[in-house]
């Protein structure tokens, strides 16, 4: 099925898989352009592309993260088909091509799916939860989004432009160096992650300043909802972890693009990569799980109709986990040969994380105990997370036993472990958060009946896929292989795993259908408080007006809204007079600036000096331009505000 | 949280909030930079002995010349602090003068660094020649590019100042900038000590 032709004496081949990718991209583009033109939505699109408003940027993050989820999921299904049968030959996905799928899958899922989806939910919910009007730096927020999008596109586009990275999402040196990965794939990896990483770091700073400086009166740190707390700690983790990745990627880029030998096995030191990568990488897994913890805490206390059990210890546990997250990176390197003393220290520090994690699990259980539980989809996701995550934690502690890890390391057991924590923790958290905050974002509820179907499909698919992986690992199946022998006895388990993967894929498609269905027929959220909520975001209409709170509320306790409902009429004492509110302007600069980053990366990958230097100058120029245009926006006057609030029925 | 001062316009109030936010953001940014430079120091210390067929630290550095650039850069920190002092006194002319001095000193440092690199390259010590050289160039080069960024930033600042004069907006910009500049200077003190002094001491 390969397409071959000669152009100006040059032989050009399009392998069938790339051809298929090209066609589907073309098809989607055409459909998109067609729909936009047909419904006359170009202006509407422009509004979204230039927005600087937190909830819109949140939705952008969710959309882009969702799109990457489909790509990463497709990779996963391709891998699972290839592995379904022993000595299988599915299409062209063996050897190097399999490595490309595997690497893109992992990289995409961690950096361009899990993180942006969480950051999207943070953007939607955090300002509302603390009674703020927006993030501290709206322009920067848009820039963060576009940088993430540029980086993600770079890694994803590599497939049709000369080859994807092949060295795994961990890109270990010297495997990831030119010597062993000669194609441009790992250049895309290094530059894409670097660009997206800048965006992530800027987001973290933005959230830190927002949460520390922009809380409304009475919203002390000790009264913040758990999701906001976890966002705060996560942002701190990003702040200290991502720079380590920056340095690692810098070394990798220099080695690959400029011929240095930082990470080569003989002239340099390949272990530098592993240390830097895991100094970033271990905190990264907590960057992925802490926000999910926050979501579950909010969801569970809302749908159990109870104050979260042990609020203070919950906060303390998040902070402690965040801190310990930086102390344990060597547990990824037990088999490298750093010596028994080092291994012992890191084994024990790793296991100690189980203590605060256990505290959290018990607090969730105690919150449920005696609660008036409503089993909606958001809650189902939260409840099903508890056993999966406990299991992931248990296998984690098993892995943390250094001598045993010599057995498990680089086996399918590890794959089982981290999918139980990342899918069974983070992804379930994201789904829970989506069902929970959906009405706040869009003004209608996701349909419960369809939602529950979607949940069960996902939950069953999840366990079918990942549980057998533990056993396969113990039976000796290594990770990152594209096939196995007939008589290894791994065939049945692999087949089960593949079936599970397709159930999950089906569930994701079903989710899209549920969104579509609910958009047309779903229940409108007229009150703004569909769940009888406890925190501030439910005290304003859905979707919120652009200024969120006409008058910012005065907060009197944890679960601020609930307190007002119980002790009064459910309205807040305002913390301020009606006064003019500043609305920052829309801005195209973030999109353009990120576009230039994207373009400049190609200059480096293909060694075009003009593009490199030109890109650098343009980036600088954009920054200077920004410094002359960082004014503007408009004020909504007090009278206008009063009028708008009146029209909504005097909330 | 918001401190509502009575008798100020919404615009002023917004600017006051913005000022607090920006200064805090700069501190966080600097924390991240500390990790970046920490990582680069770690890389340098690990690879310092990987000299291959290239020079060793002892053989490479000229302490006298780096002492000069150190003095140049540290005086720029001093003039930058003076600029901050005049900023509080609202004496615009002196402030601009001090900022100009800072800019000149910063550019002087850059010139000296470029000269240093050029002499090394002339001797045939390039970034690809040994891991020690690579890590040295990467660490000092990252610092140097921070100085360069600071110089460009200063130029833009001066332009703003000449156009708009001294107002809440421009003085905030200077405050944020001076945080950055002092940080860049402090990093150099570490580079001078760890790379040059210890390197020479062997
Ligand atoms: C009690 C908690 C946990 C413990 C004790 C633990 C322990 C470990 C250990 C020792 C390894 C290394 C195994 C090996 O490569 O030989 C590992 C791998 C991994 N863990 Fe965990 N873990 C825990 C929680 C988590 C969480 C919460 C996440 C993510 C949200 C996570 C994600 C991962 C990932 C992605 C890997 C594989 C990294 C790779 O590609 O090599 N873990 N875990
Ligand atoms: Cu880890």
Automatic annotation (TrEMBL), chain A:
The protein's annotated pathway: Energy metabolism; oxidative phosphorylation
Cellular component aspect of the GO annotation: plasma membrane
Record GO biological process: electron transport coupled proton transport; oxidative phosphorylation; respiratory electron transport chain
Record localization: Cell membrane
Catalytic reactions on record: 4 Fe(II)-[cytochrome c] + O2 + 8 H(+)(in) = 4 Fe(III)-[cytochrome c] + 2 H2O + 4 H(+)(out)
GO MF assignments: cytochrome-c oxidase activity; heme binding; metal ion binding
SUPFAM superfamilies: Cytochrome c oxidase subunit I-like
Chief place of localization: membrane
Matching Gene3D superfamilies: Cytochrome c oxidase-like, subunit I domain
Transmembrane segments: 20-39, 59-85, 105-126, 138-161, 188-212, 224-252, 272-296, 308-332, 344-366, 378-402, 414-435, 455-475, 495-516, 611-628
EC number: 7.1.1.9
Membrane topology: Multi-pass membrane protein
Superkingdom in the source lineage: Bacteria
InterPro entries: Cyt_c_oxase-like_su1_dom, Cyt_c_oxase-like_su1_sf, Cyt_C_Oxase_1, Cyt_c_Oxase_su1_BS, Cyt_c_oxidase_su1_bac
Domain Cytochrome oxidase subunit I profile: from-to ranges: 40-556
UniProt key word Nucleotide-binding: no
Pfam families: COX1 (PF00115)
Keywords: Cell membrane, Copper, Electron transport, Heme, Iron, Membrane, Metal-binding, Respiratory chain, Translocase, Transmembrane, Transmembrane helix, Transport
Family per similarity comment: Belongs to the heme-copper respiratory oxidase family.
Primary role: Cytochrome c oxidase is the component of the respiratory chain that catalyzes the reduction of oxygen to water. Subunits 1-3 form the functional core of the enzyme complex. CO I is the catalytic subunit of the enzyme. Electrons originating in cytochrome c are transferred via the copper A center of subunit 2 and heme A of subunit 1 to the bimetallic center formed by heme A3 and copper B.
Name the record gives this protein: Cytochrome c oxidase subunit 1
Origin species: Falsibacillus pallidus
UniProtKB/TrEMBL annotation, chain B:
GO MF term set: cytochrome-c oxidase activity
Bilayer-spanning residue ranges: 24-47, 67-87, 96-114, 134-159, 179-199
Main location: membrane
Family statement: Belongs to the cytochrome c oxidase subunit 3 family.
Organism for this UniProt entry: Falsibacillus pallidus
Taxonomic superkingdom: Bacteria
Pfam families: COX3
Membrane-topology descriptor: Multi-pass membrane protein
Annotated protein name in UniProt: Cytochrome aa3-600 menaquinol oxidase subunit 3
N-terminal signal peptide: none
Domain Heme-copper oxidase subunit III family profile: 1-200
Compartment annotation: Cell membrane
